[in-house]
Amino acid sequence: MTFDLPGGRRIVLAGGQLGWFWVAAGAAAVVLLVVLYREERKLVSKRTGLGLLGLRLAAALTLVAALFEPIAERTYKETAKGRVLLAVDTSESMATADPGRPEGEKAKLRKVLGMSPAEPLDALSRREVARRLIAGEKAALGGLEKEHRVEAFAFAKAAAPATVEGLAALLKRPSKPDDPAGQTTDWQPVLAEALKAGAAPVAGVVLLTDGRRNGPGDPAPTVDRLAARGVPVFPVLVGSTVPPVDAAVAALKAPAGVYKGDVATVEATLKLDGYAGREVSVTLDRPGAPPLRQTVKAPADGSRPTVTFRVPLEQVGTVPLSVAVGPMENDAREDNDRKTATVQVTDDKARVLVVDGEARWEFRYLRNALARDPRVAVETVVFRQPKTGLGADTTFTYGTALPPREGNAPDPLGGFDAVVVGDLDPGEATPEVWARLEAYVAERGGTLVIGAGPRNWPEQAGNETVKRLLPVIDPRRVPVDPSAEDPAHPGLPPGAAFEPTGQAVADASSWPMLQLASDPDESRRRWAGLPRLPWVLAGKAKPGATALGVAGGDPSAVALAAQPYGLGKVLWVGTDATWRWRHRVGDAYHHRFWGQVVRWAASGKLAAGNAFVRFGPTSPRVDEGEPVRFQARIGEGVAGVGPDPLVAVRVFKAGSGSPPGEALAVVPLRPVPGQPRTFEGVAPALPRGAYAVRLDAPGMAKALGLNPSPPTPAPEATLEVVARDTPERVELSASRDPLDRLASATGGKVFADFEADALPGALRALKRDVVRTEETPLWDRPGSLLLFFTLLTVEWVARKRAGLP
Predict the structure, then answer these.
(1) Which CATH class name applies to 608-725?
(2) d(CA 405, CA 633)
(3) The pLDDT of residue 710
(4) Domain range 350-482+535-601, CATH architecture
(5) Is the model more confident about 285 or about 387?
(6) Exposed (0-12), middle (13-18) or buried (19+): which is 335, by Cβ within 10 Å?
(7) Mean pLDDT taken over the chain
């Protein structure tokens, strides 16, 4: 029930829903009071009686009015002062200066920052530009607090609340190069702050950043929620889109692990902005050996050249390999001139089983090449042994069947890093054989190399299990022109040329078997000069498979391909003539190809341990913030390994001595389904640093050789936790595109740093007149209660003075 009053005021009776009841009660009280008045008139004068009646009626009306719960309301308009989130990027890229700005931009920026003509601008870092934009009332953004409720934040990997003065003081200090949080730019946490409830609505978000977001995750859901709430984002692009003169190692690729005595291929991608046509020195440093050096010419088109080093590694353990560029004059940042990769070198051997129907030329040369490799232990199976004619049954002493599996014992195939299958007769390669091979790949994480042969493989390709395993679909024989000669090898029979795919041969770390030279272009030339293949079976690569090489110049005729399969991987080699690559060069290319195939197959082996057990992190170098996966694999000859033994790894700070003291982490290892004698566990993220890892198996320590007698140390693996590699120090030009998308999605606008003085006007336009209502309850105020009791008190005093009871 509402009663309007002048001036936007009104009285609201909150208890009006029971109004008739209160009116009836009040009327009854009035009747009773009148009856009392008439009785008292016999004892007192009329004036006294009327006075008492008036006091009683006033008290009754006050009580009835309170029961109606009256509220006084006042409606008025005011200009709302909304919240503005002011966030400044404090990541490492903001320490970059921008001397390459166009002169017009420089003049405008000087004016916005209030700089004198004599003050140098080129050396001003983006941090300092941001500081001058927000510090002081005369700064371009310094007056925001007069018109808005400003909430300040510093952000890099996360958002940290601050005051505007504190933020300015933070920007005045130099950034910390060793701070891992500074290697990430992510404004998503700031946007999430704008979605939190506050004392006033958010009028907008102001981001001062160079636009180089490289944080994890997708901020799109947060941006969509801001847009739905009508919260605009106003990014201020701090920095120039013209990249400064800078030389840097943009990326570094190296194998995670190799065998002792192997040659590791290390690829460094260089960024050489502003050095077009210049000769640049690139150096690889390695412990205990002289550095390797190369010279590269900076391209004129701004592309990023790749330098490849082949590094022989003889030292067992974790070996750091550092690649540095320069030094170069006028280099904008020297802290991006070097990158380091860690390679785990192990003295273990790769175990390989070669299976073939008969001792073909391909089988003989492959077996001999692997047998000469000191880092490979090769075993063979030949189903049909060749006859000697001299009374002996065979010329080979190898088995004539796969290693047998006895009862519920683990399949002995699981002890091999790679199984190479050649031209098998369907009668020899029974469904049981293929089922074992499929389980070896899918369940035990093995690598299966399938090499086709002309006698049986067209028929084998129709086997359903083989179809699943093959990385190619519908393999067919590549036609060969019998009259076409190989110009490089005219004495050899005609054949199809094999050509690796460009993308695969350029990725040395992923596909080392294709690297016939340290330089990708030279490697392609050597492939082109190899003898042609008289027989090739090729098909179309499956979705998810990687085409590594084609035959006969047909891009759809994939003769070399790889695919992941379950826990393992499968490599398809669609020919039985790789031995012809030995023509007049011996082991140069044939052994290099197959040796790298074996190393690729066995990659990811655990580096620490002995003849009884191998253990350690699956990757010796992990990024800070990432979980660490540990594994242990117990050899087949170790007795007493139950279904669920007590196995764990203990993680210590590197260099803590022996005994190493208290472990920083103890990670239980559980059996891996489908992989007998393999145990795995995951540790939470560890702080950045170097660690030593030891295996703890209380019930099997002696059997596993984990407690050797002094001075022989216990087996120990190494782990290094490093800062997450981001382009924060490499991509130095400011990027406007992501800020344009952010502003467009939320209804905001991007301002360059030299036009930041226009931003307050855009925020001012967001102010709105808000209609507010002020409510004052009257019925429960102390004055109402005081009035009621005052009336009753006065009535009691008057009654007593009149001589009434």
Answers:
(1) mainly beta
(2) 19
(3) 65
(4) 3-Layer(aba) Sandwich (3.40)
(5) 285
(6) exposed
(7) 85
